[in-house]
Design a protein that fits this description.
With 281 residues, the chain is an alpha/beta fold. It folds into 2 domains: 149 residues, Rhodanese-like domain (Oxidized Rhodanese, domain 1); 115 residues, Rhodanese-like domain (Oxidized Rhodanese, domain 1, 3-Layer(aba) Sandwich), CATH 3.40.250.10. The protein is 30% helix and 17% strand. The protein has a 5-stranded parallel β-sheet. A hairpin with a 2-residue loop joins strand 3 and strand 4. Helix 5 crosses helix 10.
Amino acid sequence: MDELVSVQWLAEHLDDPRLRVFDATVQVTRRLWVPTIRSGRREWRQGHIPGSAFANLFDLSDPDRPKRTLTTPTPEWFSARAGALGIADDSRVVVYDRRENMWAARLWWMLRTFGFDNAAVLDGGWTAWQKQDYPVCTTRCGYPPATFHATARPDLVVDKHAVLEALEDPDVVLINALGRRQHRGDVNEYGRRGHIPGSRNVTAWEILDRTTQCYRPLPELRSKVGSALEAERVITYCGAGAAASSLAHVLVRLGHPHVAIYEGGLLEWCADRHLPLETGS
């Protein structure tokens, strides 16, 4: 499958018996710039793409880490949870969400991290589906359990130690997918202000058309990413791995062969007072 599919494509393939469609939404609210998150299952129950099931990213993440981090679990854990969702080794998976594609991209990246490439993000997600007046289902849907074999690709996810090494490596480019105010240090969502030193800022919102929630055309995306495409390796980060996954998804579509995400993000980085930050553009 392509890494990105349209709502038209999905509508034409809903009867595919191998297809598995998932809503992976996480809802975020903020009070005084401090984000709180919860599963989007409630909204899925109120209406979803016909046949689609809900994939709870908290359940798919490492159970030994705080749920807000959405940290990649062991292959054994992910195999069991993905299989319980009905994903088999020969399935075709489409993931969507109700926000800015980033939660869908997070699950897409997790699948990719565990060796599963037959998955796509739905371009524009729930917003695009509704704008095209496609049918909506309110029946709770799910798929029969299947067997999923996860094969870890450790080079697709890095930790803070690898990021520290990257700060001294001219062949690695760091890109912050958070908003400009967070990048500059105008706001404080993670305990300290600023961004990882030397990192560029390409926000997960500017790679989208804000009206349709679809990704911008590839030539525009290539322009926004710029010379990062020439780097030997690119590491994206955000708060805890979701916006970073959306930007990583774009980089893969643009053909970069060595993309990783720092899923600990500023949530982890800012908590360690010994790790450097810088402010400004």
